[in-house]
Amino acid sequence: MTPAELSRTVLHAVRRAVDAGQLSVTPPERVVVTPPGPGGCGDYATNVALQLARPAGRTPLGVAEVLRPYLVGADGITDVVVTGPGFLNISLYDTAPAALVEEILRRGTRYGHIEGPGGGPVEATGEATGDGPDGHPARRDTVRLHCPDEVRAVVVMDATARILRSQGVRVRTGCEGRPAPQWQDILGVDVDASEAAPAASAAAVLRPVPAPADPVPLGRDAARWALLHPAAHDLPRIGDEHLVQRESNPLFRVRYAHARSRALLRNASDLGFAPEPGAVTADAQSLLAALADHPRVLAAAARHRAPDRLARHLVTVADAALPLLPTVLPRGAEKPSAAHRARLALAEAAGTVLAGGLSLLGIDAPDHL
Predict the structure, then answer these.
(1) How far is the C-alpha of 296 from the C-alpha of 302, rounded, in Å?
(2) d(Cα 3, Cα 295) in Å, to the nearest integer?
(3) Which of 60, 194, 285, 291 could form a cystine bridge with 50, CB 3.0-4.6 A?
(4) Which fold has domain 3-93?
(5) Neighbours of 91 (CB within 10 A)
(6) In this predicted model, what pLDDT tens digit does every residue of 15-29 receive, in sequence order?
(7) 3 state DSSP class of 90
């Protein structure tokens, strides 16, 4: 069962409880499931009971206890445990890792993007205005992003617009001045209009701490990473540390993990075997959790106008993937097995998530480093 399928299963449980008269609420359009937080258990958790408690006129714990019987025994679910104030922690059959990898490989670099009813891209229709019922930005008219005429602000706005569009939001960007030509030519920013600062209620104004030096000499990829990886309230470091090809450089680790995943696919093809999602060993759990968390991170980055959340998440994925990559290919006279094919599929999924995330940040994901 994939996270998307589990989300639909939980939503179906809510609707069944409503139809049975056990909950008096309007079911949400979508339910978000994420890896369990501290104190949680199982494969996934959802806070849907906390979301429904107030409109239902009940405590979150009471709503969770109503929903639990509708989830226990559902196809693919082995157990449901209620923790904390009302979190539903869901354990799946052992096919969960394979299903997650299958979903990532099916969606490709669009994994985590919002899909329409037919499985294709959503037609962007509106502005993120706080949490919608599914945990993604609620939509109304086109969202307007605005920033001062400063290089970091323009790059942050550009990346924020890319992430918002991945979540089905139509975006228009504006800058108080005319961005320098090299910001577009070298850094790859795209601004719709040069305009005066709008009224506070008319646009989301992005004002990150300005860059202390000109990042353009670093080149597009290193410069954008230097400006996007720190949180907006942190002073970015503009220096050659973003260019070094060592593990001390987070951008290098992210791009190296992607390049290694692609190299493994080429090497496996030379050995005559291909990736095939399947069961993986316990040491892959941290990577699986990071991959499963990718849609939630994209939604949060859009909601909070914070591309740094995505950048840090990519570092988490890379750091979880790198120790596993040396175990993918057979060694010596060892023959390729189902375990090798499953690890190769997991490596391909990790590389896919890294490539998709870097693309949203406007950074290249090379197949060779």
Answers:
(1) 10
(2) 9
(3) 60
(4) Gyrase A; domain 2 (3.30.1360)
(5) 15
(6) 999 999 999 999 998
(7) strand
CATH number of 250-360: 1.10.730.10
Q: How far apart are CA 74 and CA 1, in angstroms?
A: 11
138, two tokens:
């609620």
Which residues is 146 bridged to in the sheet? 174, 205
Domain segments of the chain: what residues? 3-93, 143-237, 250-360
**Averaged pLDDT, 61-84:** 90
Q: Which amino acid is at 283?
A: D
DSSP states of 185-252: HTT----SEE-PPPPTTTSEE--PPPPSS--GGG-HHHHHHHHHSS-TTSPPP-SGGGT--STTSHHH
Say whether pLDDT at 195 is over 90: no
Distant-in-sequence, close-in-space partners of 179: CB < 8 Å, separation ≥ 6: 149, 154, 189, 191, 194
Q: 303-348, pLDDT tens digit by residue?
A: 999 999 999 999 999 999 999 999 999 988 889 999 999 999 999 9
Walk across the sheet containing 143-147 and list its strands.
Answer: 193-194, 171-175, 143-147, 204-205
The number of beta carbons lying within 10 Å of the beta carbon of residue 107 is 20
Q: The tokens of 251 are what?
A: 């951008």
Q: What residues contact residue 268 under an 8 Å CB cut-off, 6+ apart?
A: 274, 275, 328, 329, 336, 340, 344
Output the six-digit token pair for 43.
């494969």
